[in-house]
Design a protein that fits this description.
- The chain is an alpha/beta fold.
- The chain has a single domain, classed as Rhodanese-like domain (Oxidized Rhodanese, domain 1).
- Helices cover 38% and strands 24% of the residues.
- The chain has a 5-stranded parallel beta sheet with strand order 1-8-7-2-4. The chain has a two-stranded antiparallel ribbon with strand order 3-9.
- The protein is globular and about 35 Å long.
- It starts with 9 loop residues before the first strand and ends with a helix.
Length: 133
């Protein structure tokens, strides 16, 4: 099969995702910048590259998504992709695999499942307040 399909996406639960991230995998949060600013995983190696943008016409795919990921990561980096609930990250993971990224996993349940399981989150507003002290 030449192209990756949703069937080929490896989806892992948040426990496995947390283990992988803490063992050196990079995390790509594909939510919008606005969602990311409200709170995100409290982990090292996190990068926010939106897969979709909210426009007056509704959501539209980020046309530079693959280019932005390619400028931040190499195709053999170990990556975990997550969004709010696991839907956008599934599409993003499929696109990354189709573009030749080899070690990519989708975090099932997304940020919502991360919070439900009591894992740490970070809110950028709190970071800015601490920087100002």
């Amino acid at each position: 099969m030449a192209e990756a399909s949703a069937d080929a996406v490896v989806t892992i639960d948040v426990y496995k995702a947390k283990d992988l991230i803490h063992s050196g995998h990079r995390y790509i949060d594909v939510r919008t910048t606005e969602e990311f600013k409200k709170g995100h995983l409290d982990v090292e190696n996190i990068v926010n590259i939106p897969y979709m943008f909210i426009t007056p016409e509704g959501r539209s795919k980020n046309p530079q998504f693959l280019e932005q990921v390619s400028s931040a990561f190499s195709k053999d980096d170990s990556l975990v992709v997550g969004c709010q609930s696991g839907v956008r990250s599934t599409y993003a993971t499929t696109d990354l695999q189709s573009a030749g990224f080899i070690h990519v996993s989708n975090m099932g349940g997304g940020y919502a499942a991360w919070i439900e399981n009591g894992f740490g989150v970070k809110k950028p507003q709190e970071e800015m307040e601490q920087d100002e002290l």
